[in-house]
Amino acid sequence: MTRRGREMVQVPRRVALLLLFCMAALVASDTTDGLLPNGNFEEAPDRSQMDGTRVTGRYAIPRWESCGCVEYICSGQKQGDMVLPVPEGAHAVRLGNEASVRQQLSVTPGTHYAITFSAARTCAQAEKLNVTVGAQSGELPIQTVYTSSGWDSYSWAFEAKDSVVSLTVHNPGYDEDAACGPLVDSFAIKTLLPPQQSNYNMLKNGDFEEGPYICPSTSCGVMVPPMDEDRYSPLSPWMIMSSTKSVRYVDAAHYAVPQGARAVQLVFGAESALVQEVCTVPGLPYKMEFSVGDAADGCTGSLAVEAYAAGGRVTVPYESQGTGGFTRGALEFTATEDRTRVVFVSASYNMKSDGTVCGPVVDDASLVCAQSHARRLLL
């Protein structure tokens, strides 16, 4: 076959391969709990659709659609003197100016889901990410680094409105160096069960067992960022009230947890609060009990937690050796409204020896109407 003939055969073959890539990217991913298809970006783009590290083909990354200045980063890769941190495995994606990645998900309308993914800052000064599913959108501040590794895992929740939705993560920032922007990796999903209230606990999800997916290989927990009150929380119905700071969702596989398999660590002092609203009857007495401890992560010193509701307030002290343990606290108050906010906040700022922030663990929270509880005990 002549050279021209071989080239004529290769052109339609390349076109066919590109169409296959496009079709694969457009297929909605099933929502099995865990890593999304190619959620860790270990399936690499074809070299023909890359210019150095930059991805040039819109559907070059298998199962993903990319837009703007998107780079495919290898572990150990440098930018100047800075080593770009890859959260998991050998590859990640960097989102430059106004860049985004998108994947379609097959979901059940009316069901709530939590997305978990890892993010790391690079060379931009004020990095953040926008996460969008359908018409629901939120901003994740990633300026604060909570770990010594340089990257953190974040969560974001949504309610499915359609059977197929698009998950988009977008870097809205602009830097003189178009390549500057956050690294993202390890995208996972989890179906969230509706939180339930019981006769013995007015707080829903008081044990924090229902929350975002924590990758088994992730030893740094998952950050739950601040949120608007009309957004669905990955720790529903708990909300994180703050301007920019997050709390850490931890698991018993990597941390000391007072009860069960999950808990919340308050890692930024009074700058972030854990809040839940409950229905109450004005004039009736209530009692809340909860655990305060340390996560066995080397966070030492005073890890006191303040809890308050209506006119009641209590500080529960806990002196940590950084090796695990907890104490029980209690707060009694009289409701003044038909809805009462229960709030937990760290009473101090704490740091570990490596300079990263840490704080007390809160777990196993329960709330009862003291009058009703006393009546049950008499029966």
TrEMBL record:
Keywords: Cell wall, Glycoprotein, Secreted, Signal. InterPro entries: DGR2-like_dom, Galactose-bd-like_sf, Pectin_Meth_Modulator. Residues 1-29 form the signal peptide. Residues 34-190, 202-365 form the DUF642 domain. It comes from the Eukaryota. It is found in: Secreted, Cell wall. GO terms for cellular component: plant-type cell wall. Pfam families: DUF642. SUPFAM superfamilies: Galactose-binding domain-like (SSF49785). GO terms for molecular function: enzyme regulator activity. PANTHER family: OS02G0527500 PROTEIN-RELATED (PTHR31265), OS04G0494800 PROTEIN (PTHR31265:SF7). This is DUF642 domain-containing protein. The lineage of its organism: Eukaryota, Viridiplantae, Streptophyta, Embryophyta, Tracheophyta.
